[in-house]
Design goal:
Elements: H1 8-14, H2 20-34, E1 40-44, H3 50-57, E2 61-66, H4 69-75, H5 79-82, E3 86-89, E4 101-106, H6 117-129, E5 131-143, H7 144-149, E6 155-161, E7 164-175, E8 180-191, E9 198-209, H8 211-220, E10 223-230, E11 244-251
Parallel strand pairs: 1-2, 1-4, 2-3, 4-5, 5-9
Antiparallel strand pairs: 5-11, 6-7, 7-8, 8-9, 10-11
Length: 260
C-alpha cells in the first residue's frame, strides 16, 4: 500500500485543480449534520496536507496521518503545519495513537486502497478504537456499480508550473472477479525544454465496494452505517452510474461485537 512515495514533490502539481476548500466544506457539512460540535479530527492518508489546512480554518483540532514519509515531509512544510496541524506517520490498519477523536475521516478514496478483506477489517477495527463516544467515521470510495457500468480507461494528465512539466499516464486493468482495478502509472517530468525526462512507475491496486458489503464490514467492527450518497451530492440517492460514494458511520453501541 505504498503510494506516491517517489513523487511527493509532484503530487500537488498533478492535483492543483482539485478544489480542496470546496470539498472540505462539503465534508464539514456532513460532520455538522452527524456529529455537531465535533472538534478533534483524524485524517487518514493525509498526503501533503492540502485538506488539513482547510479543516484547521474550519476550527478543527487536526491530526493528519500517512504512510509515506515523503508526503509527510511536504505536509510538515505546508500551510497546514503553520496552522497547527500535527502530522504523524502510521498505517490505518495498525494505528495506535493513544487517543480518540470526534471524527476519523479517510478522503480521496483512501479506503479503496484496502484491497484485501483482512485489510478492510483491520482498518475499520482501528478506526472504531480511535472514535470518541458518539464519534463518526467519514470516507469516500470507488462504487462497484459505477465502475462496472463505466469501466476505467487509459487517461493522460498533463500539468506545468514554470519550467516544470509533468505527464501522468494511467493504464487500468479491471479485475471483476475480485472487485479490483490494477492501475499502472507512468509519471514523466522535466525542468526546462532541454532537460532530460525523469520517469517514475507505480502500481496502485484499487478496490471498488458495494453498499451491502460495506455495511457488513462496518457492522463487524462495531460501526453503524448512517449515511451514504454520491460524492459531492449530500442527500442524493446512489445510482448505478455513480463511480464515487461517501459514507458516514458511527460507533454502534447496540452491536454486541463492538470493540471496546
Amino acid at each position: 500500500m505504498s503510494v506516491f512515495e517517489e513523487y511527493a514533490e509532484l503530487y500537488d502539481l498533478l492535483y492543483e485543480r482539485k478544489d480542496y476548500a470546496a470539498e472540505a466544506s462539503v465534508f464539514h457539512s456532513l460532520i455538522e449534520r452527524h456529529r455537531g460540535g465535533a472538534r478533534t479530527l483524524l485524517d487518514l492518508g493525509c498526503g501533503t496536507g492540502r485538506y488539513e489546512e482547510h479543516f484547521a480554518d474550519l476550527g478543527y483540532d487536526v491530526t493528519g496521518m500517512d504512510m509515506s514519509e515523503g508526503m509527510l515531509e511536504s505536509a510538515r512544510r505546508s500551510e497546514a503545519a503553520r496552522k497547527g496541524v500535527r502530522f504523524v506517520r502510521g498505517d490505518m490498519r495498525t494505528m495506535d495513537l493513544g487517543r480518540r477523536f470526534d471524527v476519523v475521516q479517510a478522503l480521496f478514496h483512501v479506503v479503496s486502497y484496502l484491497s484485501d478483506d483482512d485489510d478492510v477489517a483491520s482498518a475499520f477495527d482501528a478506526v472504531r478504537r480511535h472514535l470518541s463516544p458518539g464519534g463518526i467515521f467519514v470516507f469516500d470510495c470507488w462504487h462497484g456499480p459505477g465502475v462496472l457500468s463505466d469501466p476505467p480507461a487509459v487517461r493522460v494528465l498533463e500539468r506545468s508550473r514554470g519550467d516544470l512539466k509533468v505527464w501522468r499516464i494511467a493504464r487500468p486493468v479491471l479485475q471483476p472477479a475480485s472487485n479490483l482495478v490494477d492501475v499502472e502509472y507512468t509519471i514523466l517530468s522535466s525542468r526546462g525544454d532541454d532537460a532530460p525526462l525523469r520517469e517514475i512507475r507505480e502500481s496502485h491496486r484499487m478496490r471498488y465496494f458495494f453498499l451491502p458489503e460495506l455495511r457488513g464490514f462496518l457492522s463487524r467492527s462495531g460501526l453503524l452505517l448512517v449515511d451514504a450518497h454520491p460524492s459531492w451530492n449530500p442527500g442524493g440517492e446512489i445510482g448505478s452510474a455513480d463511480w464515487h460514494i461517501t459514507v458516514v458511520a458511527r460507533g454502534d453501541d447496540r452491536n454486541p461485537e463492538t470493540i471496546p
